Amino acid sequence: MTAANVNPAEIRTPEQEADYTEQLLRLADTPVRRCIQCGRCTGACPMAKHMDLVPNRLVWELKNGRASVVLAARSPWDCLSCFACETRCPRGISPAACMEAARLMAIRPAGAPVLTAEEVAALDPEMPQQGIVAAYRKFSK
Amino acid sequence: MTIYNYYPGCTLSTKAKKLDRTARRCAEKLGFPLVELPEWQCCGAVYPQAPDAVGERLAAVRALAAARDNGGVLVALCSACYHVLKRVNDDMANVSSIRDTVNGYLDLERPYAGETKVSHYLEVLRDTVGWKRLASLVTHPLTGQRVGGYYGCLLLRPGRVMALDDPEAPVILEEFLRALGAEAVLYDERNECCGSYLSVTQPTYCREMTDRILRSAADAGAEWLVTACPLCAYNLVHQRGREQQVGVVYFTELLAQALGLTEGGDAQ
């Protein structure tokens, strides 16, 4: 699974970087500029060891206007929205909301679901509706 | 008398009927009968974090407004429903841009501004019934049973909004278990995530997390874990290594057992 609907390679000019960063920041709605890079978010994240861009790095790239780096990362698709990062941030930032913003940038424009109906049909029949609905919300428009 | 409006959510009507059934039966016995909202829609299972995600908030607001119009509180059992309802309610109370857009869209008879109190079933047990009274009503104490409370993430975090308990050192499930006469087992991973919806897309990672939780509980001596979340229950039972022995039940199953309204058995 990748953020197939936004091609970070198409972000070439500083103006495009600024524009995409602005869009991400608007969706994330969290004060990334307050980040002091203490790393508590990454320390708390149960998925950090599998991520290519750990939570504090993702916030750092956003803070510094590098939307192309954020949108090229796989991490938003690994994020659990468990809010451990947000709870432990001493500066009131929500890295989880930044992850959500990156997911939304990928799934909103194209209408091509990252999780397809065929994939859902193939799931364990015991999978609770809650899991299916949650995954749809996170991975499909 | 307070009306306990009840929001079951999608999974309690289907895969987690045990959680629903036992909760309703116990609520009757404990004097706070649950009144299911006449109409409700799935809350969406995850809180929509983006401020412009208005459509994703509507189902929750409809339920919240219906509870307000009916009077009383809105009770949820599923951790995800509770999380979504409480956070959307907080948005409606405190974020004017979201409140105005949602009200403009829904065109309710009376605009909604976060008036409803959202409570988890455990909160009703703690704050209305009280642990002492609950203990006095137990007819079949769980004496000698070593049970761990599994909080997961959605019940507690973010602590500022959820405000159910201390998000780092919660006690509500342990106090509940003690009131039933069980031995509450503390273990390191009790408020770590079970892998949530990654069991749909990346079950290997999910298994890694559930194994860590179950190992931690077993090492601390727990025989059972209790949860309030159907997805946690599924992950802890179905996405686990074969060597794991700890059982998983909904907290209301143990409640029913202790009150002599037994069903018993594994959550899955």
Structure, explained:
The complex is a heterodimer of chains A (about 140) and B (about 270). Chain A has about 140 residues and is mainly α. Chain A has nine helices and no strands. Chain A has two domains: about 100 residues, Fumarate Reductase Iron-sulfur Protein, Chain B, domain 2 (Orthogonal Bundle); about 30 residues, no CATH class. In chain A, helix 3 packs across helix 7. The longest helix of chain A is centred in the N-terminal third of the chain and has 15 residues. A four-stranded parallel sheet of chain B has the order 2-1-3-4. Chain B has a four-stranded parallel sheet with strand order 6-5-7-8, sandwiched between helices. Chain B has two domains: about 120 residues, Glutathione S-transferase Yfyf (Class Pi), Chain A, domain 2 (Up-down Bundle), CATH 1.20.1050.140; about 130 residues, 3-Layer(aba) Sandwich (Rossmann fold), CATH 3.40.50.1860. Chain B has twelve helices and eight strands.
Topology readout:
The complex is a heterodimer of chains A (141) and B (268).
Chain A: H1 14-28, H2 40-44, H3 55-63, H4 67-72, H5 75-78, H6 84-88, H7 95-107, H8 117-121, H9 129-139
Helix pairs in contact in A: 1-7, 3-7
Chain B: E1 4-7, H1 17-30, E2 34-36, H2 58-70, E3 73-76, H3 79-94, H4 96-106, E4 118-120, H5 121-129, H6 131-137, E5 146-149, H7 159-162, H8 172-179, E6 183-185, H9 198-201, H10 203-219, E7 224-227, H11 230-238, E8 247-250, H12 251-258
Parallel strand pairs in B: 1-2, 1-3, 3-4, 5-6, 5-7, 7-8
Mean pLDDT of chain A: 91
Low-confidence regions of chain B? none
From the 3D structure, determine the CATH topology of the largest domain in chain A: Fumarate Reductase Iron-sulfur Protein, Chain B, domain 2
How would you name the oligomeric state of the polypeptide chains in this document?
heterodimer
Individual helix count of chain B: 12
Total number of beta strands of chain A: 0
Order of helices and strands of chain B: EHEHEHHEHHEHHEHHEHEH
CATH architecture of the largest domain in chain A: Orthogonal Bundle
Strand content of chain B: 5-15%
Percent range of helical residues of chain B: 40-55%
- Largest sheet entry of chain B: 4 strands, parallel
Terminal Cα span of chain A: 15 Å
Which band does the percent of strand residues of chain A land in? under 5%
CATH fold assignment of the largest domain in chain B: Rossmann fold
> How many structural domains are formed by the residues of chain A?
2
The CATH architecture of the largest domain in chain B is: 3-Layer(aba) Sandwich
Secondary-structure content class of chain A: mainly alpha
